[in-house]
């Protein structure tokens, strides 16, 4: 049957569609065939409508309607095994409608694949083209191999969960959960990479330090939750107003840092001043209240002689301190370094 394009591939969903897993399943299938002396063996997984063969030779999306497979009789029963000397004359498999091109099957022995919760996931079966019996030992081996198939499936599921959890943890370790911006360490790493990259191309890089004005008053008068709402809103404003190539981090309680590649300190200051004005006129909703906040900002150009991004951040911090002392709600630019621009790092 041609692959179904509009039905999600069950083996993909189960995380079993990669070459290494399918090769392992092929080994177990071959073992089943050899240990029972059968002509064919199959591992298949099932959903409500289709049976999905799990073999390295499958094409993505390959499946067949359940009602055309003898395994459907096993999946529909409450038994662990279905063993039939001749499926063509067996009342349990009479309803199965074979499809043109299906291999000739007369004898059948299958073991049900159940997960730990008892859900039926599929079958491991062996078939023969002539009438025959399967003895108790062959059936025990088939059941044992079925358990190995399920061990493999559980291992793959556990590996998938671990990979997802690891990716989530890696993201969480880099992100400030309140604002969604980079945290201090991640910002420093990314800013350092950008600094080196742009200096190599003899470009300008600017760093800005931004700090909310009198933020303590908001916390004291309206509570910590209102303070958090302000921080979160400011994070969104920054992310929206700045370029996607800029990197923004929350590097302290109410302090933010921005690195702006290919931007002179003057251009950076102009952009941040526009942002400062926008913040001053913006109102942050806290319950019934609309809160007004302002920010102060210090900007510094990255000096090619700087040992790292921290040197520029320190200068931006000093300019921020000047902005606070000059009355807040303003942008100050750090004095230009006298040293020439050269490639470093
Ligand atoms: N709600 C909230 N408040 C925080 C957080 N981190 C730091 N703060 C608060 O930020 C305030 C910082 O106060 P100050 O350093 O005095 O600064 P400020 O009140 O903004 O004054 P200036 O910076 O001089 O304008 C303190 O009240 C901290 O408790 C946070 O994650 N959430």
TrEMBL record:
Its EC number is 2.7.7.65. It catalyses: 2 GTP = 3',3'-c-di-GMP + 2 diphosphate. It is an enzyme of class 2 (transferase). GO terms for molecular function: diguanylate cyclase activity. InterPro entries: Diguanylate_Cyclase (IPR050469), GAF (IPR003018), GAF-like_dom_sf (IPR029016), GGDEF_dom (IPR000160), Nucleotide_cyclase (IPR029787), Rev_trsase/Diguanyl_cyclase (IPR043128). This is diguanylate cyclase.
